[in-house]
Fold these 2 entries.
Entry 1:
Amino acid sequence: MKFVIDMMGGDNGSKVTIEAVLEFAKQHLEDTFYCVGNIDELSSLNGINNIILVPSKTVLKMDVDPMVAIHDKESSMNIAVDTYLNEKCDGFISAGSTGAVLTLATLKLKRLPGITRPGLITPFPTYKKNKRFVAIDLGANTLNTKEELHQFAKMGSIYYQIVYSYDHPKVGLLNIGSEEEKGNDLRKETYQLLNEDKSLYFIGNIEGNEPLYGNVDVLVTDGFSGNIFLKTMEGSCKVMSLLIKDAFKKNILTKIGYLFSKKGFDELKERMDYKNVGGAMLMGINGVCIKAHGNSDFKSFTSALNMCYSLAKKDIVSQIKESL
Amino acid sequence: MKFVIDMMGGDNGSKVTIEAVLEFAKQHLEDTFYCVGNIDELSSLNGINNIILVPSKTVLKMDVDPMVAIHDKESSMNIAVDTYLNEKCDGFISAGSTGAVLTLATLKLKRLPGITRPGLITPFPTYKKNKRFVAIDLGANTLNTKEELHQFAKMGSIYYQIVYSYDHPKVGLLNIGSEEEKGNDLRKETYQLLNEDKSLYFIGNIEGNEPLYGNVDVLVTDGFSGNIFLKTMEGSCKVMSLLIKDAFKKNILTKIGYLFSKKGFDELKERMDYKNVGGAMLMGINGVCIKAHGNSDFKSFTSALNMCYSLAKKDIVSQIKESL
């Protein structure tokens, strides 16, 4: 398989991506990795058999305007998307601006037939060990129609089936109450659409406190609410982690307590660490397109590479096309 | 002062409210408490000097239709609101249906001049010790205009000033990015309105992961996103608490660890316990109207009573009227 990586896009630049790609390429000698970026910065990747350097001149800013993203044809992201097409790659990764990834991928890779807006999807850990749920859209859109929410439900359901080999994933609609008539018109109308689609296992409305318990497999939401959901969950878990640290640091006794209970808390940390996921797939695009965390470090960029690799290997895009 | 309590509304019925009101009335002998509900159930409140029983026949269901709430004139909530008006009370509390509280309070107590939609406001703990932020609206509305978000900003700012004696609370707009042009049209237009209002200390857009760190005082949001924010935060903190418990229960060593570190974790638990808040004020209504948690227990209903008491004592409604 062939992968193309925008090496420059994240907050931490090529330092993080070089390390991660070096390691990943070593473990996947049969695959080829196109690394797009400033050639001088990427010199340590020179001479590695399965790595091909592709030069670029500029780097898109995190808050880049979509029009600038399109017109700056020398940017690492733009050239990476071109490389994806020219070299018929199997996967694309960037830790750069979400808006730019969305714009360039939609423009150049095109949408899948029947999809009006792509959506960002990613898995989350739950209170149930080894149980994940996915949520779509997490912020590719700021406003969606009921038809788009229906498309998200279908794509999310297929994603879950393919990635977790699970036949009838439970689909829920993020809403502010569980009863059918809750929420605004968009939610009430989407509820009806999802309920009528017999290809979905729709379990109704889901409130923000429920998904982490693991009672839903595919959480469907517009990009605005989905992003609020994502960020609020990340922030809450992060602050709780800081408070756990502080609790152990309180005095000499609690510090001793930490030594005893370390094993339990290492497990908790590992389980809830969002770096184990690393990114989100832009679904609805004719290609495997992964948006890695803007502030990716080695661990999370490696997870994004793993995500891209496994989705490409499962040929998720063909499977989605078929199912739609 | 005089308070009226819907004794029947919550998931746990009068069992919880009786205990809490008994204790609270004992500590506030100079105040009068009108307790509305099934007289037989409330018999243990008989003969207490500062408690007056008010009989009601029915109880509104949690998912009651607003029209039913209006027409069921014998319900504890309906009679409680009437009592508030007839006895010129200073505060009203119900753990019943949010929609019914909103409907009956708006209909009978009326909105404040200049307010088109009331909003639910409540304080949240943050990572900074003793630092709170408030968020409005948390779910009284399912859709809001920019003018309503502006009203929430003004009311939230006044609430913060009065409750925390803090002169220039930082107002932020819940959004999916920090830059001015982020989000959908509603957010962009609201951003301009808040930015132009020189009576507010507007600090811009706030993402869902930020408020818990304590960098904003008043978080402004429409009721739909606000409710997603509230529930997601509650759920995440709750699941993290369960995971902490599990981590300590992992094996004999971690159990010993718990004994050593208990003090630190008791503090964490107390700090993040939403039962310490107990409810939300319905702001924009001509009265102090507190919606207690539907699943209130003794601790959280007592907190709701405390909230109601302190807001009434500060004469928050007159102060809001003046400031608007």
Entry 2:
Amino acid sequence: MGKTYTYDEVSQHRSADSCWVILYGNVYDVTKFVPEHPGGAKIILQLAGQDATEEYDPIHPPGILEESLAPECKLGPLDASTLPAVEKPKGEEKKEDEDAIMPLDHCLNMDDIEAVATKKMSKKAWAYYFSAADDLRSKALNNTVYSDILLRPRVFVDITKCDTSSTILGNKVNIPLFVSPAAMARLGHPDGEHGIARACSTFGACQIISNNASQTPEQILEGSPPDQVFGWQLYVQRDRKKSEEMLVRINRLTKIKFIVLTLDAPVPGKREHDEREGKNVGSNLPIRSSHQEGSSSTTSPDPKAASGSVASAMFAGTAGDLTWKTTLPWLAKHTKLPIVLKGLQTHEDAYLASLYAPQVQGIILSNHGGRAADTAPPAIHTLIEIRKYCPEVLDKIEVWVDGGIKRGTDVVKALCLGAKAVGMGRNALYGLGAGGIAGVERVYEILKAEIETTMRLLAVEKIEDLGPQHINARAVERDIYDGPAGLEKLSMWIKAKL
Amino acid sequence: MGKTYTYDEVSQHRSADSCWVILYGNVYDVTKFVPEHPGGAKIILQLAGQDATEEYDPIHPPGILEESLAPECKLGPLDASTLPAVEKPKGEEKKEDEDAIMPLDHCLNMDDIEAVATKKMSKKAWAYYFSAADDLRSKALNNTVYSDILLRPRVFVDITKCDTSSTILGNKVNIPLFVSPAAMARLGHPDGEHGIARACSTFGACQIISNNASQTPEQILEGSPPDQVFGWQLYVQRDRKKSEEMLVRINRLTKIKFIVLTLDAPVPGKREHDEREGKNVGSNLPIRSSHQEGSSSTTSPDPKAASGSVASAMFAGTAGDLTWKTTLPWLAKHTKLPIVLKGLQTHEDAYLASLYAPQVQGIILSNHGGRAADTAPPAIHTLIEIRKYCPEVLDKIEVWVDGGIKRGTDVVKALCLGAKAVGMGRNALYGLGAGGIAGVERVYEILKAEIETTMRLLAVEKIEDLGPQHINARAVERDIYDGPAGLEKLSMWIKAKL
Amino acid sequence: MGKTYTYDEVSQHRSADSCWVILYGNVYDVTKFVPEHPGGAKIILQLAGQDATEEYDPIHPPGILEESLAPECKLGPLDASTLPAVEKPKGEEKKEDEDAIMPLDHCLNMDDIEAVATKKMSKKAWAYYFSAADDLRSKALNNTVYSDILLRPRVFVDITKCDTSSTILGNKVNIPLFVSPAAMARLGHPDGEHGIARACSTFGACQIISNNASQTPEQILEGSPPDQVFGWQLYVQRDRKKSEEMLVRINRLTKIKFIVLTLDAPVPGKREHDEREGKNVGSNLPIRSSHQEGSSSTTSPDPKAASGSVASAMFAGTAGDLTWKTTLPWLAKHTKLPIVLKGLQTHEDAYLASLYAPQVQGIILSNHGGRAADTAPPAIHTLIEIRKYCPEVLDKIEVWVDGGIKRGTDVVKALCLGAKAVGMGRNALYGLGAGGIAGVERVYEILKAEIETTMRLLAVEKIEDLGPQHINARAVERDIYDGPAGLEKLSMWIKAKL
Amino acid sequence: MGKTYTYDEVSQHRSADSCWVILYGNVYDVTKFVPEHPGGAKIILQLAGQDATEEYDPIHPPGILEESLAPECKLGPLDASTLPAVEKPKGEEKKEDEDAIMPLDHCLNMDDIEAVATKKMSKKAWAYYFSAADDLRSKALNNTVYSDILLRPRVFVDITKCDTSSTILGNKVNIPLFVSPAAMARLGHPDGEHGIARACSTFGACQIISNNASQTPEQILEGSPPDQVFGWQLYVQRDRKKSEEMLVRINRLTKIKFIVLTLDAPVPGKREHDEREGKNVGSNLPIRSSHQEGSSSTTSPDPKAASGSVASAMFAGTAGDLTWKTTLPWLAKHTKLPIVLKGLQTHEDAYLASLYAPQVQGIILSNHGGRAADTAPPAIHTLIEIRKYCPEVLDKIEVWVDGGIKRGTDVVKALCLGAKAVGMGRNALYGLGAGGIAGVERVYEILKAEIETTMRLLAVEKIEDLGPQHINARAVERDIYDGPAGLEKLSMWIKAKL
């Protein structure tokens, strides 16, 4: 440990046989770890023999280095004077003069916030946040579906009072908004997920912590008031042990009130902006020839093998064999927290979920921000589908939505249709990218004001008084699935197949 | 009073503790007035210690200065020679050579008029007139809804005669058009509301005077012929006394035939063009942190606190606690004039209004020019909704519409669907901006000719003969609200809640 | 007559009191004629004292000068040497090098033809042909309605034979196309209407001669084969005598098989492209203040007063008092030719027309090329409306359509829906503008080939076998008028009002 | 034969009377062949007296020269030194630096592939592949119809296994994709149809060999594994003998499992991009005056006469007199292979086809890539139409679709609606143009990965489990033909007319 390493020494070790990297000024031998890296071997080998701190830092929670590596892997400090002078690669530079960027208080809406964040963030972060599947059709639909719904303002009612408070699984929130589990917040700003938590605290909103957060749950929760409401997202790992260990840790954190089991991305969608950025940054290694596997891929999908996109790194290790019958009982053994299932996109699955109450207490209608299957329906479609085929679901469990929220009117429309809470992922991340904690606070400030204005113009004082009579969703209703309900078949399916 | 002040002296007094301003060459100590300024303290403090005439003049009726300030506040004349040489701020300059602007008689339609006005007016005036809520969706819908309705021209009928005359609440008009209550006309042109009145007189149209006119009602009516038809818009003030005093004044003016009680903007919508202009012109004072209020804003909404937009200044003082049960009886005590309710956007509210006849004799279906709730329905939606759910309303009270009128065909389509009169706000203001009285006259000249051509091509001689058989509104009808009528519930609601 | 005039002499006479003009090298005193000029006084006065040949020639049939003026008005020849050197005004110059223009045989479709014509014609001619009412919505709809109809090609049928011949009112045509009565062909090319006739002869198509043709009927028919089919359009003149004299002349021309009574433009629509061109070329005379007439214009509409557009000149003198009850009997007295009513836009009027068979033998569903009422329905709408409400009309009289034809598929779709013939105005005029006779022939060559290809791909050999089973018009059907049929009311209306 | 010819000698023979061309360094006297050239005389005469190798080679299968010409036509070798120095015509040059073109592994989707191919191919090849009929409406619809269908992803199902294998007429394929019979592959890349076959082999896909392939069937099949599945497309020739000879040859090739009888282009559609390219390259010969034929073209359509487009050359010789009654029995005499009918676009024809089972074992719903009748319905329309009117067809015969496939989601949607296999023409050709065999492989690699991701996100393991419950096609269903089914009439029609 007493030895100090030079950059030249490190740079000899750049293969799978002997792979060293520099992190935070120390030299590590990660040769043994390379094959089991959740993000795939390739991404490490690209950085072998070099200082990997800049790439490593924003996407790994502090402390995970020590957790993952045996002590002997830490070889010792680097002699910093031996580092070559570096030029920042172009994609990582700030793209514009800070001066030319709109100040936060001049940002009037989510588009302004996104524009500022796009200017301030690295291209890699932008590509990861912005990207969605294929041709971005679901991403686009997520927002336009709200525009297609008209409001029905009422008049001549006293609107001096307006109260946006509500509850989420019985926990009081000042505004029925939650941050969808969005990964890698430190990619956008060093304040990271903890910064989002701070802003949520200011506005009394709920935050769902991503399984792939760039900070640990403990770090994110640090300093939050006792009544702040958090959920924790679980991506079940192929190696169930890892998930079980995480659950033990989560069960200890009393501010975490529920587990969100994400189901809508058992494999990642094809996010081309993210992939292109990965290709640009990545090396010229040949990509996998997937066709050599023949027609039937009987092994689990292996996103590790895809090119160096953020998403592909993140999905490595995620289990694809979750089922109603096996996963919920397993989960019951490892946590008493209520379960919220995320990513339901049909009335059939919503109905199934409602049969699993009370273990399951909520569902999030979500197409994963348009990032999973392109042309998957927006959450509002699924919500109207539920109203049409099995409205009783809305009584049995809480139904939340996310995706495409740009305006307070969007939030209010979702609530009118029966959503108990409304989630946003990109808005929070863009807010963070635009100005750290203050940026996320600006996001909430704008949306809260817009929600209040909308409620007042609908002549509604309390969230619970919003209802379908306040909107005209006819232009959307005519596009909703119109096939057989299939609910009887579902019971049979449950018995037969699960 | 004998004393003459220098600019340097005045410029010492630029705080809430001692606030002087120069207006029309005189120096005023407005310290005591600052906290009670209807437009908010901030907007005055921004101009403290300076010559505020240019900002003050176009948005305040002459005489209101004397009404509002105690005599001792007028300190005395300014020594004009001490004024610093000023450069006109860029936003206030005329943006183009007058020569390059299309002459009025070459303007063939409302878009031409708007284009000319946009070039001639200050950016502040343009931003105030042009702006609408959020993403301008309702503003856009207001017009496109007319394009989606097809005409059904009839042929082989004698069309040598064509008569556009009609009545508005029993008062004869030569054309069934009214100027919607549009504030701050002098922002666009010194002819102001009085200029609009002059043009209305030429064409026999009706004018509704804004509560926030930049001239007094008496000034606006001056010189108008005895049979010219006016209405007066009431924004009920939180301080009811102020409204009652205004009503006393209005009751005296016999040309004012009705009171328009505006209900569609109890809080202003979010008009970003206007807000951005306010931010550009305004100072760098930090904006309000509204979130410090917590989730429930139990006090009346306080638009004063918003940044220096025209709208925010204007809405200060407006009451948010109007109700069917309390406001109409109060109003009955203070005026015998018939009441027209403005801003109804649902068949439910139209139905309710019809129950209040004969005190209420008319309603204006309006989404406030798209300036209140974005994605609120265009007036034509509400009109078709009334035809569908409670057509008897059209027999009991007059139903007027406004918003989005660009063509004579638009006017005729609204009349075919049962509107008794059709209002325009921006057209009049843009006409004024494009050429004062002559500009507004050009607006009417164009529209009257278009209305006559349309009537002739429909083979209809008189306004009252226009009917739904003359149009095909099917493309719009399929988007109309299709939920439960809720009219029975309404009676209960009236008993229970009001 | 012996005297020769100098330009200086002529230029002294430029007022209504003494108005001389030079035409074709001769000097005329038109003082007495000015007030009775069908195109209005203004347009002559603008050219008073000058050589008006260039403006006069392309819009007046040869010979009409002698017809209209007393012999003494012709003062004598001009001394050509006294003419000032003239620079061609910019709008009248050819806009591009002839070399850069696509040759006719490279033009593959109507858009190519229009593009070439636009480059070759004067701006005035382009503006007159191109223009349509208001915002060009009906003009645009005229074409897009065809795109929205899908074909239903059939296969495995012998398609070696394909026969486009048909009949029009019993007269054989080689292709069921007619040239809609389009005015002022010589504006676009000196070949004029006679050139169109020549091209129609080559392809066996029908031509309807415009009442406002720039050549006389006799000139147009000259040299045409005995079996060529012509119709003649009648715009009934306020001065009925003039129309009666024309009918006497027409009755003598045996190739003219029917009279088309145009009903869809009793007043001209507002054609802004044409009007703008008129304003640019016209003088700075103040335009009419129409509002001085008050609300009721009880006199006939006076388009003469409008600015110097081609349309306004052309509509002067047209009667607005035509009716089912009075005009058809009058017409019966003056011609035995079958009558075709042009410009029907509702099933009601189509139904009424069918009651007037056998005097009325056909109707042309037309919105006047989108030039009359903007947002009037495309002919295809009216055709489907007839199929829905009163399909018997299709058995009693021939139903033709025009407007928006761009492709052979458009023609075939109209025929499938029951149209007996399909008309085109602009295509013929653009063809003429693009290359005189050869240009119009190219138009027919392209369309005939497209029609044949479409018929073959539908597996249909003969025009009469085309039917609704060959198309899918569902996307259009859902926009068709859906109100009460009103056919019973029509009988009453006929009795009561006519 | 011993004689060597000079370029000057050859260039004397450039007329129909004596026509020599140089091909692959030899001089041929093709005078006798000119009138019977399937692609028309004109196209040869344009190259008479010159070296035609560059034009000839990519569109003729090797060996066909010897097949078509008598031995004495081959005059002898050219003295290469006498050839003039040539400059490559501009349209034929590679249009961009190869360096600036995206490498294949960076191509993420079909649009990338098309963009690369567009840069690499000759303009002539691009124009031929890219072009579609008229205004490209059917071509555009072919793709957008897929976007309008939403997916219905299911969750909480084990998706570790995913099997894309299926069968085509009982033959196993690893992926239910086929290459539509696309002509002239060597225009795009020298690897030609054989290259496509190689890529199909890698991925276990099916290939339908075009009747107009630029390589012989034997060449294309060379080296393919015994279980690779091929079909062969038959364009029946007017000279039936030629087709019969081809069938003899095809019957011998055991890897060819079925005959695809193409019915959707008995005449070619009007492909303007292709035609324009033909006009640019072609000479200035006057085009045919088709109107001289009169209204009835009782002879077979003669596409030979059209300008020098690739399509026009290719369609020469194709029979237009195929019928259900005569062609299928004739075919039965010449092959025992199952027949697949290509180009059905109505439920009526699909129903008819099903009556001809078991000779007919499949149909391909196709509008010929939008290249035949513009505004013909996309295959998905016809598929839904079949589901609506005669779903039993799907049980009796296999129904395949092609046209507009851009994404794996498109493929999956077609399968969900009941398609047994999905074809692509342009994708394969663009892949070839982008990189030969490797380019086509990249096309399959991308689509296979997308299909697997989509299946996993729908929670479907096997192709046969995909069904209508996995999609929401409501937005498309409302546009489907809604007229009378006409199936009873069809039986009558069969009896009466066939």
